[in-house]
Amino acid sequence: MALMRRQELEASCEVLKIGDLEMLDYADSGMMGWPSNDAPGSFWQTPVQEGAARLAELMRHYRPDVVVTYDENGFYGHPDHIQAHRITMAALEMTTLSPKVYWTTMPRSMMQRFGEIMREFHPDMPEPDPAEAAAMAEIGLPDDEITTWVDTTAFSGQKFDALAAHASQGENIFFLKMGKERFGELMGMETFVRVQDATGAVVPENDLFAGLR
């Protein structure tokens, strides 16, 4: 499975025209609460300072102008997303770099639309229990707290093809069932919260490189 995912990731990067791919080869930890969370070598079990030191070395090499990672909750509580946040922020502290830093998130209006489309494709989906519904309502941020709205509609076909190349990830199947047109309607806007900036670019902004170009 690890080899398959590496090959799929490489194929996705080729579709997206990513020039440099660095693999740190940590094992997938699975969803929160799964036994794989505790497996030796899983990303969730990696000491933050160890992972951060490896990432800081790459940052010093590439000297990024912009760094993007998950928010503190990994968007929806995925352990590897949370760990990616912790390690990225710790790595930045280990360097003397001062890039623009963004946490990826979703406005709650978009989450509501996402839920409507899920029911469109799965009309027999049961109603969530109150606790689950309350947890879902807390995913993302109020629209007015989003600092950065980037229209990626022109690239939605590439994004769809990149997901198709990475189809072993089960969460991608739902998006692929939409087809490219509906996928573009739902996923044509990427949203972020800017948490570090030395450019003084005014927010809300529509470009991660605002103030740098």
From TrEMBL:
GO molecular function, one term: hydrolase activity, acting on carbon-nitrogen (but not peptide) bonds, in linear amides
Highest rank taxon of the organism: Bacteria
InterPro entries: GlcNAc_PI_deacetylase-related, LmbE-like_dom_sf
Keywords: Zinc
Listed GO biological process terms: glycoside metabolic process
Protein name: LmbE family N-acetylglucosaminyl deacetylase
Species of origin: Streptomyces luteogriseus
